[in-house]
Amino acid sequence: MHGAKRRRAPTEFGGQLMEKQRMRVSYGLREAQLSEIVAKAMKKKGAAVGDSIIERIERQFANVVFRLGFASSRTIARQLILHGHFFVNKKKIRAPFYSLKVGETVSIIPNSKELLIFKDLSNKLKKYDAPEWLFLDKEKLEGGLLALPKGVELPFDINLVVDYYSK
């Protein structure tokens, strides 16, 4: 009755749920968004479902802005995109969940480069290395998708997430 309570080991379902929640939080996705991404990935022929899910999430505009180092978090990246501070192929895109295609270029709008949040960005980017599937021009403050995301380090087990949605 008194003292430390015993914790039960999580059930198989509990472990899957925990990993799914960890994924949702780390990418800032709502449940409906994640389940839609997983459903599309499961319909895709030929690729492993887990790889397809990660590829879809990593190609999202807000995530690419974060991975390029233009924002310190995915939430800030989403906010900056909604406020119209970025171009994709010289067109203003205000949809954080826009899915970038290989070869598309992301750049900061010239007027926005003077804002406080972007002021010292070139110095911060000198110490930063973008993932190998992205290219980053640290002088022009632009980058983009070179190839589909592969070998992304994840803070969760994607296979447990796939198992959760397979039921």
UniProtKB/TrEMBL annotation:
Keywords: Ribonucleoprotein, Ribosomal protein, RNA-binding, rRNA-binding. One of its GO terms (cellular component) is small ribosomal subunit. SUPFAM superfamilies: Alpha-L RNA-binding motif (SSF55174). Residues 59-123 form the RNA-binding S4 domain. Residues 1-58 form the Small ribosomal subunit protein uS4 N-terminal domain. SMART domains: Ribosomal_S4, S4. One of its GO terms (biological process) is ribosomal small subunit biogenesis. Belongs to the universal ribosomal protein uS4 family. This is Small ribosomal subunit protein uS4. It comes from Candidatus Wolfebacteria bacterium RBG_13_41_7.
